[in-house]
Amino acid sequence: MIDKKMESKKKEPDIKKEDDAQNNKDQIEINNKNLDKVKDLENELTELNNKYLRLLAENQNIRKNHDQEKEDILKYSSFSFAQQILTLTDNLDRAFQIFKNDDKFKKDDFKNIINGIEMIEKELKSTLEKNSIKYIYCLNKSFDPNLHQAIGEKESDKAAGIIIEEIQKGYLMHDRLLRPSMVYVSKKTNK
Question: 134-191 in CATH: which number?
Answer without folding.
Answer: 2.30.22.10
